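Q: Okay, next protein. This is Acid-resistance membrane protein from Streptococcus chosunensis. I've checked the sequence twice, so it should be correct. Can you predict the 3D structure?
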Amino acid sequence: MSKIWKWLLLIAGIFAVFVGFNMFAHPLISLASMTFWFALVFAVQGISEIVQYFKSEEKHGWNLFGGIVTLILALTLFSGSFIEMVTFVPFIISLWALTNGITKTIVGFKVRKTDKSVGTPLVWMGILGIVAGLIMMGHPLMTGLYISYTIAFVFIYQGIVAIVQFFKIK
């Protein structure tokens, strides 16, 4: 590995650790800044589900419904003010998980009629999504903090891994 790449690894590691600790120190600000990325992911997923519905030979209205709801949630995130973004992100994520869980459960039961090996895990993942959505809806502040802290931990972990790799690479 060239020296430039090795040093970039160290810089990336230090930066990731710094960002992670900053997210731990300011979780709500971090949550607000993540809103854009959540909205982008929701928009892509919503569009993907809608396109998949129209391209699929077997049309399940619940897939279309799930895609439309996900796209509406994305547009809500894109159009909100800073304060609204901070307060609504946990609610929107929980509503999205709940809606996604319901649609996956319904589709899973339909798919199970033709292929149990695909339908059964889909049903269980849908039920898990429903439970997670309800828990998150009941505790929006904890949901927001959990999201911020989890991502902060991942940044710190990845940063430490990069720094260790810097010292291990010859």
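A: Here is a summary of the prediction. The chain has a mean pLDDT of 89. The chain is about 90% helix and 0% strand.
Q: Noted. On to the next one.
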